[in-house]
Design goal:
34% of the residues are buried. This protein folds into two domains: 10-73; 86-276, Aminoglycoside phosphotransferase (APH), C-terminal lobe (Aminoglycoside 3'-phosphotransferase, Chain: A, domain 2). Strand 4 and strand 5 (70-73) form a beta hairpin. Helices cover 42% and strands 12% of the residues. By secondary structure, it is α+β, with helices and mostly antiparallel strands. Strands 1-2-3-5-4 form a five-stranded antiparallel sheet, with helices on one face. Strands 6-9 form a two-stranded antiparallel sheet. The chain has helices spanning 40-52, 91-108, 170-181, 199-210, 214-241, 243-276, and strands spanning 14-15, 26-28, 31-34, 61-64, 70-73, 138-140, 149-152, 155-159, 166-168. It binds adenosine-5'-triphosphate and magnesium ion (MG). Residues 16, 18-22, 25, 32, 59, 72, 74-75, 79, 147-148, 160-161, 163 line the site of adenosine-5'-triphosphate.
Amino acid sequence: MADPKRDVDQHDEESLIGDGVTQGIVRVGDTVRRPVRPFTMTVQAYLAHLHAAGFSAAPVPLGLDSQGREMLSFVPGDVPREPLPPETAGEEVLIELARLVRRLHDAAQAWVQPADAVWGGIPGAQSTASTPDGEPLLVGHRDYCPGNVVFRDGLPAALIDFDLAKPTTRVDDIANALYYWAPLLHPKDRAPAFIDLDIPHRVAVFADAYGMTADQRHALVPAATRMIGRFHVNMRAAAQTDPAFNRMWDEGVKDRLPRAEAWIHDEGPAITARLTGR
Ligand SMILES: Nc1ncnc2c1ncn2[C@@H]1O[C@H](COP(=O)(O)OP(=O)(O)OP(=O)(O)O)[C@@H](O)[C@H]1O
Ligand SMILES: [Mg+2]
């Protein structure tokens, strides 16, 4: 294989466009180059730990390239976009995603973050208090949006874009994955194939595949409710400071999040009942 650090000509680069938050992401051969941010080297150390711990369903961190950009391995597969396509609405997708998240958490558990760790967040975010006292922390992905899940053979196979990774609890990280993939949204805001799905059942399918404990099952709806409230506060703040977030806010986030808050308030008890068998 050619030396990935070799200087590249502009015409070797293929632009990668995701959700539009991060500009300047390109593919060069088997690698991806991304702009360096304050958290880049912390995320690279985390990714290195995951691979060393046997979790290979994430980009391999390759340091910086000769232009000072972050370099990662390109993860082959297909990345869905919103609205989620109908073929991603099957339970087997949820089951595989839950197994992936479980393997990520188990690999992350033993990692001790560097003393000078720097983590990312959405621009201008005010509310980061997410974790009830006493719950063990591990570094989770925290952004399981469709554009960050790589599919192979129709199933989730890897995770990319660890820009929002930071210490969290298993339950908070699970709530994030379920927000996008159950999804924990008002039917009006779901992709067409997800509108009529039985969400409490789907949450329970995820919980079984992950192997959630009784305590985690009881904690899920309160965690998801807090998370959606945080999303609302933080997305409103980000919309005021960042053009990409401003666009997302105007294009629907401003209505979707209050609707999600009302929906989880109404449907949360049914989800908890299904999860805990009561
Ligand atoms: N390591 C990788 N392997 C394969 N594809 C990648 C990789 N990194 C990025 N991509 C592709 O590029 C797209 C954009 O990258 P990324 O998700 O990192 O940025 P983004 O979507 O702009 O950021 P955000 O998710 O914060 O909005 C991804 O959705 C994916 O299609
Ligand atoms: Mg992304």
